[in-house]
Amino acid sequence: MSKRIALITGANKGIGYQTALQLGKKGIYILVASRDIEAGESAVMQLKQEGVSAEPLQLDITSKENIATAASYVESTFGKLDILVNNAGVMLDAFDKSPTQQSSEVWRKTFDVNLFGAVDVTNAFVALLKNSDAGRIVNVSSILGSMAANTDPESEFYNFKIPAYNISKSAINAWTVHLAYELRDTPIKVNAAHPGFVKTDLHGVDAPLTPEEGAYTSVALAMLADDGPNGEFYHVSERQPW
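Structure for Short-chain dehydrogenase, as requested:
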């Protein structure tokens, strides 16, 4: 297939869906990856009504077996992958508990999705990304994972301590740096995206940005030109502090 192929995890709703819609509007074929295949199928129906070429892909990012099955399907069907957006994420922290009071179950479940899921998916698809003329990997992070923002009392985010979530995003930022370094001599570019404070199931209705606005950064990083940044952290066009 000559058309560019994008796989977006958690693409059945929220920022992931809007990322799929915006990339699809640019003529990219979308693999709507979701744990619930019925939710993925519903999202694909909506995308097709918007004129987007897409198909659902059942993908539980906490299951290595399921990831391997999905990667095998993409390889046999398309032979490559041009864009990978590691968008799926969870926020499970109890907001009335301090870091030492969060349960070990919350820590493990958060890292299983927000870090290890992204790592496992990337590792499974990196060979297909190397088959692309200009592979792009976008790791959806958060400014709440910024060590600079977490340690600067003058930062507007200084008091937003959501332990397991924040630290999992610090880890995905570090993964971005290491992965970009590994792939520095290839056409693949790897960057982290801060979507902003977006109205989603994760953040609630009081957030100022819409999912459409929250997808802008992921879309921009997925569409980077060959001279674009690599191993960086962005919100829209602004570099963010690690």
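The chain has one domain: 5-239.
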